[in-house]
Amino acid sequence: MTSIGRVLLHVFLIIFTFHGKNYNTVQGAICGGDLVGSSGSFTSPNYPEHYPDNQQCTWCIQVSHNQKIKLEFVDLQIETSPSCGRDYILIYDGPSRSSQLIAKSCTAENRVLISSSNVMTVYFRSNEMVAARGFAAKYKSLPLHFNEPSCGGSLLSNFGTFTSPNYPQYYPNLAACTWYIRAANNQIIFLHFTDIDIEYEANCRFDHVEIYTGPSTDSPLIGLTCTLSENIFLINSNTATVHFTTDRSVVNRGFSANYRTMQAGAYCGGHLRGNHGSFTSPNYPESYPNNVQCTWHISVDNGQRIILDLGYLRLKTSQACIQDYVEIYDGPSTDSILIARVCHPSNPYFTSSSNNMTVYFRSDYSATGGGFKAKYTTQPSTISQNMCDEHLTADNGIFHSPHYPNQYPHNAQCNWYLSVSNRKTITVIFTDIDLEFSPRCSYEYIQINDGFSEASPLLGKICSGLNVIFTSSTNNMLVHFVSDSNSSGRGFSAFFFSIS
Q1: How many whole angstroms from its chain centre is CA 112?
Q2: Distance between CA 292 and CA 93 in Å, rounded?
Q3: pLDDT tens-place values along the chain, 500 residues long
Q4: Most buried by CB count within 10 Å: which residue of 65, 110, 245, 297?
Q5: Beta-bridge mates of residue 360
Q6: Which of 431, 429, 416 is nearest to 491 (CA)?
Q7: Rounded to two decimals, what is the model's pTM?
Q8: Nearest Cα residue to 139 out of 254, 86, 205, 61
C-alpha cells in the first residue's frame, strides 16, 4: 500500500472511532464493524491488495426502521471452491448470523441483494490457503415497500414474481442477473416461467436462463432454458439460484417468472406440458420418503413423441424391481402399455410412440435411496395413420402392430426399420404376441432380419410366444409384420434397446 493510502486509511479509522464505532483491525486494515446511515461502502481487509489468511469479519448494516437495504458487490475476487467451502461471504437478512441466510458467495459475479428489513449482516471468512484481491461493496437504503427495476436480488417471501430487466420492454445486452430464492428449511421451491421471449438457439448458447438447486451458481445446475417450451422447474431444496445472461447481439422482451414454496415431499407427480421439461423424485437430491406413489403425465405437441432420459437413478434395488421402482407407460395413464419397470441404472432412454407418456414412481416401507432425476425432450413422430411402416432411430423405444391392443387390420404389411448408433447392436423383445397361429407361421407372422431388408440374414419368424428376444449383429434391424384376410387378434407389442 502507498504512503498516501496508509494516511487515508488512518484518517478513516480515526473518523469511525470518533463516531463511536467498534472495528477490529488486521495489520492496519478494517475487518468488520457497524455501518449506519442511508448509504455507505466497505471492503475486505487490505483491499485491493490480497486479504490476510484466517480472517473472520462481520459487518452489521443498519438503516432507518422504515427502510430496507440494497447491497451491491461492485468487485469480488476471492478463492473459489466447490460449495464455497474455503473463502466465502455470507449475507444474512437481519442483525446477526443467527438471522435468515440470504446467500453464500465465493464467485466473481457482481451481486445485488436486498434485505426484507432495515438490518443486514455480512460475514467474510478466509482460510490459511489461497488469498486474492477480496471485495468491495456498497449499500443504500430503499423504502420498505419500494420495488425498483432491478437485475437480480434476493427473494425471501413464500411466493413472488420477478422479471428480466425492463420487462416487457427489451432487456439490455451483456446483462448478468442473479436471483436468490430462499424458503424455510422444510420447504422446496416451484418455479414457473409464465413468459419467455429471449434470443433463441437450439442449445441456448446465446441469451439464456440457468436454474440451480442451491444458494449460488456453484450449486448443481438443473435447468437451462431460452424457450417457453421448457418453463416449469421443481427445486427440491429450500434454496434456488436463477441466473440470466445475455450476449451483445439480439435483444427481446425477456421473461416473467413466479415462484412459490411448499412442504418438502408434498410435490409428487403432476401434469407436465411443453416439449421439454424435467422432474425428480420427492426430496431430490436427498433420499426420497417411504411409501410414496407419484404419477407424472407428460403431454407434448401433436406429431411429436417423447424421449425420456433417466440419467440419474439411485433406488433401492430388488429382484424384478418389486420394492422401489419407476414404471414408464406409453400413453396418458398407467392403463397404457408398459414400456419398462426400472430400479437400477441401465439404459436410461425411453421413447413413446405418441405425444403422451406416463411415469409412475413407487417406494415401499423400508430403506430408500438417492432417488432419480428425469428430463424429457421430443422428436417428430414418423408413425403413419395406422402405425404401419416406421423408421425408429433412437437408441431405444417401443412399437406395436396397428391399433394394438385392439385388432390389427386384415392384409397388413408393415415394416419397422430400427437403427441405433454406430458400433452398437439392437436387442428387441416381443412382450405380447397374439396372431393367428399356423404351423411354421405360414399365414400371419412377424419376421426379423439382421439388416435393413428382407434379403438380410433371417433372425427369426414368429407368430406366438412371450418375451421372445432377438439380437442383431449390426446397428440395423428390420421387423416385418404380415396379416392375412382371415381372423385377426390383438397383434403384438415390442420394445428395443441398443447394446454397446
Answers
A1: 24
A2: 36
A3: 444 444 344 434 333 333 334 344 344 467 999 999 999 999 999 999 999 999 999 999 999 988 999 888 888 889 888 778 889 999 998 999 998 887 788 875 546 777 888 999 999 999 988 888 999 999 999 887 765 556 888 898 888 899 999 888 888 888 889 999 998 887 888 888 889 999 888 888 899 999 998 888 888 887 888 987 667 787 878 899 999 998 877 878 899 999 988 776 556 787 777 777 788 888 777 888 888 888 888 988 888 888 888 888 999 888 878 899 999 998 888 888 887 888 887 767 787 878 899 999 999 888 888 899 888 888 776 544 345 778 888 888 888 988 787 778 778 888 898 988 888 999 999 989 999 888 889 889 999 999 887 888 999 999 988 888 999 999 999 999 998 877 778 899 999 998 88
A4: 297
A5: 295, 327
A6: 431
A7: 0.39
A8: 61
Read off the C-alpha cell for 227. Answer: 424457450
| Three-state SS letters, the chain | CCHHHHHHHHHHHHHHHHCCCCCEEECCEEECEEEECCEEEEECCCCCCCCCCCCEEEEEEECCCCEEEEEEEEEEECCCCHHHCCCEEEEEECCCCCCEEEEEECCCCCEEEECCCCEEEEEEECCCCCCCCEEEEEEEEEECCCCCCCCCEEECCCEEEEECCCCCCCCCCCCEEEEEEECCCCEEEEEEEEEEECCCCCCCCCCEEEEEECCCCCCCEEEEECCCCCCEEEECCCEEEEEEECCCCCCCCEEEEEEEEEECCCCCCEEEECCCEEEECCCCCCCCCCCCEEEEEEECCCCEEEEEEEEEEECCCCHHHCCCEEEEEECCCCCCEEEEEECCCCCCEEECCCCEEEEEEECCCCCCCCEEEEEEEEEECCCCCCCCCEEECCCEEEEECCCCCCCCCCCCEEEEEEECCCCCEEEEEEEEEECCCCHHHCCCEEEEECCCCCCCCEEEEECCCCCEEEECCCCEEEEEEECCCCCCCCEEEEEEEEEC
The set of cell numbers assigned to 312 is 440419474
- CA 182 centroid distance within chain: 17
**And the C-alpha cell for 236?**
427440491
Query: Which residue do the cell numbers 448509504 mark?
Result: 39
Amino acid of residue 218? D
Q: What are residue 252's phi and psi, to 5 degrees?
A: -135, -165
Residue 203 contacts residue 175 (beta carbons within 8 Å): no
Distance CA 260, CA 155 (A): 10
